[in-house]
Design a protein that fits this description.
about 130 residues, mainly beta, 7-stranded mixed beta sheet, about 0% helix
Length: about 130
Amino acid sequence: QVQLQESGPGLVKPSQTVYLTCTVSGGSIDTIYKYWSWIRQPPGKEMEWIGYISYTGSTVYNPSLKSRTSISRDTSKNQFTLLLSSVTPEDTAVYYCARGDMRSSGSPSAREEYDYWGQGTQVTVSS
């Protein structure tokens, strides 16, 4: 059973950089064909895909967030990390990590593409 666990600061100030980490257990982040996404859900809004890192370490980002986003990984710790810079209150959301499969023809922005999810971590941007 694969498990994902997000961690990070609950409250950050505007203009700061947020670092969130997803720790994976029960499966390796370099398992062939798997990719690992960050997804968020602002209050009262739809889920928004942020980006992913694949089993090879390649990354793909949502164009709307690309300029402020970086995803990296540490295979020795079986973790991957989201960096989101220059945050504003509009970045307030529950942030999730999830696992997808690159053999699927679906979009990484679609909820049904993911078989395992973390429970989510709240990030609030406020001064």
